[in-house]
User: Fold this.
Amino acid sequence: MKKFSLALAGCLTIFLLMVPANNLAAPTAKPTLVLISGEYEYKSAETLPVFKQFLETNYGFNCVYLERTQGEDIPGLDALAKADLVILFVRRMTLPAEQLGRIKNYLESGKPLIGLRTASHSFENWKEFDREVLGGNYHNHHSDKLVATIRIVPEAAEHPILKGVEREFVAGGSLYLNSPLPPSSTVLLMGSVTNQPSEPVAWTHDYKGARVFYTSLGHPKDFESPAFRRLLVNAIFWTLNRPAPEESARSQKPDAQITAEKTAK
Assistant:
């Protein structure tokens, strides 16, 4: 597994850093993004550091990466005090009160958030987080044997987060069950598997006046997808209340293919 992990990170670095970015963020305006990995199912400890480097190189962001230890601990959360945006990829943690308090203080201050995949069930000691903050309703997922097709919601097609995103693409992992969402959420993407009702896959929400974006995508294979990378970059700019860059997701073709030893469930 260690050998595979190094290969995964190496391949991701090669193709993400070779993806062209036509509009770099202005050098005088460098928002600070904090990317937090706190799960073991979907290899975010490998994908997020590479995505961090991609963001720094192509968009001029100042990025901080934090990672869960082998226990219920995420060192370095004091970085949230200076963060302009948090990207959260955590699963079922019971954080110490002091650390959870730092996350709550960040959100209560009215700053934006992006949640990826298992962020919908981030905290065992704050289970209301999904509905209250993300505007979600996670309650299990379909089998990873069922291929999920993701489609843009027609009514949301002009939303800035969907700029340049393919209208239809395939998810890398299982389809999460999130329906029905609370009325306060605005759905951007829906996903479907054979003979099952469609499920919301990406949406926006508001918490304490701040912009929130969540997507149940985030499997390692999703980071190979130009549509997913474009979606996530757009979401970063949108949550920061900045215009999205102009490059098309269709021009972002990876130069190396990532293969997994096994698919996370």
In short: The CA atoms of residues 13 and 50 lie 6 Å apart. The beta strands are 32-38, 62-67, 85-90, 113-116, 149-152, 168-170, 186-192, 199-207, 210-215. Helices lie at 2-17, 44-59, 97-108, 129-134, 226-239.
